[in-house]
TrEMBL record:
Coiled coil: none annotated. This is CBU-0592-like domain-containing protein. It comes from the Bacteria. InterPro entries: CBU_0592-like. The keyword Oxidoreductase does not apply. Residues 9-80 form the CBU-0592-like domain. The chain crosses the membrane at residues 6-25, 37-55, 61-77. Keywords: Membrane, Transmembrane, Transmembrane helix.
Length: 90
């Protein structure tokens, strides 16, 4: 296995661990849907799946994870915007 192939597999397994871990933390109420950590986990997990899916020619899975990453980015913007709006100055 080449270094590139190893990196692609690590990206895929790492992505799976992040998405599964985030969902587990959400389901056990250790994180909420408003948690930036939850959305960061989804973003990086999806990007790992994009790399792995694209490399292996699983284009539908890669495309779905591009959308998943987009949703995570949108959620991060929304959540961090709420946090900034609620922050007290000074």
């Amino acid at each position: 296995m080449s270094v590139t192939e190893l990196a692609v597999e690590v990206a895929g397994w790492g992505g799976a661990a992040l998405i599964l871990g985030g969902y587990t933390l959400l389901s056990t109420r250790r994180l909420t849907g408003e948690s930036p950590l939850f959305h960061w986990m989804n973003l990086f997990g999806a990007l790992g799946f994009v790399v792995n899916g694209w490399w292996h020619g699983a284009i539908p899975a890669a495309a779905m994870n591009v959308v998943w990453a987009g949703i995570a980015i949108y959620a991060l913007i929304r959540v961090t915007g709420k946090a900034r709006a609620g922050a007290t100055p000074g």
